[in-house]
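Posting for a labmate who doesn't have an account.
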Amino acid sequence: MKPYLALFRARCRVLLQYRAAAVAGFGTQLLFGLVKMMVLEAFYTHARVEAPLTLAQAISYTWLAQAFFHLLPFSANPDPEVRDMIRTGHVAYEMTRPIDLHGLWWMRALASRTAPTLMRAVPMFLVAVPFLGLQAPASLPSALAFTVTILAAALLTSAFTTIITATLMWTVSGDGIARIMPSLVSVGAGLVVPLPLFPAWAQPILSALPFRGMADEPFRLYLGDLPPSAALPVLAKQLVWTAILVLIGRAIVASGRRRLVVQGG
């Protein structure tokens, strides 16, 4: 475990150096958050039926999505450095390391999800809570439940991202899956529209997929839409899906290693 933690820390230190990118990303997410907030206000003003979330909760949900944007699977593109390694053949050096290749890529994905999120979420909370309608957690138990489940969401999203990265052993460029999967999971996680606002027939489908545990359920625990007592079932679901995705990812990496051909010298 020690080599993986060392890799995680080293990768985080590298990513924390990109402060200008974090500032630019924060500005972009702030702009899109304002646009989405205005759209929600327009829909709620002219709605003819009562929505599952209040307008204040929907706005807070939106700002949580903006604050944790880089943690969400919308940004789960293949690791660009791993893509270059596979293209150039330098992945052979990765395969000679005395550690598990899937574990190595999972730690890289986890660092890529958490370090940029820390640099963007903190200023987003500092701006959105006093000025833009982001509510504080519904209660202290809700805040604790949110903290635990958002950490589990990072593990879940990283496991999913590692699967996307592992597919580069077949696709090499990864451009196709990088455009298809983020669109799918961003909808399934609640980034585009809060999932409680989806019609009733879609709720069982959304609940059966792993994406809900990546964002929607932690956010609803924060808002109090889910009671703190729901944290354990949510956490169990997140960990089960993480284990499933890890097993799938390990199988893909193992299959890719058997067929991978590195040319040159």
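Reply:
Got it, the structure tokens are right above this. The mean pLDDT is 85.
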